[in-house]
Specification:
Strand order of the largest sheet: 3-2-4-1-5-6
Distance between the termini: 20 Å
CATH architecture: 3-Layer(aba) Sandwich
Strand content: 5-15%
Number of domains: 1
Number of strands: 6
Number of helices: 7
Radius of gyration: 16 Å
CATH class: Alpha Beta
Largest sheet: 6 strands, mixed
CATH topology: Rossmann fold
Helix content: 40-55%
């Protein structure tokens, strides 16, 4: 298990999230709800850090390179009183790629590519969409990005990245998290081996 404190904040909502489209590597902006969610995450983070007796500057701030994550990061940092640009961008924290299926809902995948839909149903952790990635591949790149840093970290990234990260933190991969819904109105706290949602 990883010692110390790691906070993962998923980016705020986009219109594709709201429509339940496979977003993956596509750049989609936060919608109005997503902007509110990011500011709320900043306020809750500020309250949590005060409760823990910590300062925002005690942490490394690390972000996915994708637009929706970076805007979320900048809103959170501004809300806690930090300059919006004082964070590191980690390319390996970009969202999992769904390849040719990006932009589709699962219902549309069922209609246009039933073999892929069967792959998702049968083994979502290992299934590789056409020209995409699976969670095995994602976990390896997220692990490399995570291990390139150390100390206490605040990470702003994606639902897929969180599913990979939780296994890295626990020291054991749980393939069932491929089905886990990662909230956009709460964030994840790992503190010395203990997990909670804030």
């Amino acid at each position: 298990m990883t010692p110390g404190t790691v906070i993962h904040i998923r980016h705020g909502e986009t219109d594709w999230n709201a429509a339940q489209r496979l977003q993956g590597g596509q750049e989609r902006p936060l919608n109005e709800i997503g902007i509110v969610q990011a500011a709320d995450a900043g306020r809750r983070l500020q309250a949590l850090l005060a409760e823990l007796g910590r300062k925002p500057t005690d942490f490394q701030w690390i972000c996915s390179p994708m637009q929706r994550a970076r805007l979320t990061m900048e809103i959170v940092r501004e809300t806690v009183g930090l300059p919006i640009d004082g964070y590191a961008v980690e390319q390996r924290f970009r969202e999992i790629s769904f390849g040719q299926l990006e932009g589709l809902t699962y219902e549309e995948v069922e209609e246009t590519d039933p073999a892929s839909m069967q792959g998702f149903r049968t083994d979502k952790w290992r299934f590789v969409p056409p020209d995409g990635e699976n969670y095995v591949m994602l976990t390896e790149r997220v692990r490399a990005g995570f291990e390139a840093t150390s100390g206490d970290r605040i990470i702003v990234a994606h639902g897929g990245v969180f599913r990979a990260l939780i296994g890295i933190l626990r020291g054991r991969i749980d393939e069932t998290v491929a089905e886990f819904s990662v909230p956009q109105d709460r964030f994840f706290l790992w503190q010395d081996g203990r997990e909670s949602w804030v």
